[in-house]
Amino acid sequence: QVQLVESGGRLVQAGGSLRLSCAASGRTFSSYAMGWFRQAPGKQREFVAAISYGGANTHYADSVKGRFTISRDNAKNTVYLQMNSLKPEDTALYYCAAARSSLSSDYTEYVYWGQGTQVTVSS
Length: 123
Hints:
Helices cover about 0% and strands about 45% of the residues. Strands 2, 4, 5, 6, 9, 10 and 11 form a 7-stranded mixed beta sheet that branches. The protein has a 4-stranded antiparallel beta sheet with strand order 1-3-8-7, with no helix packed on it. It is built from no helices and 11 strands.
């Protein structure tokens, strides 16, 4: 069992930056690939970024590539999402997830999910 808790979401103006954190419990965190997803009201869940269990490989949605950076610190059992140049369309509930399988943008590959943290970007 892996418990995930996101934090760091808040209201921010367009063009600003935020860093989201996802803290995991347990001692097997490093064996999971991790991903960030987001969902706005009335819209489907959207892949944002993913990172391999060792942290060497990353993958990003085209909509955030060049603006967002995913990273992890396995010693702290934490994965991060650094978000720069934020846009109003980035407004969503952001949540992290863990997968036993390799790096993936498919939400069906993820088996553990956090409860989410709200990011709101004003124009």
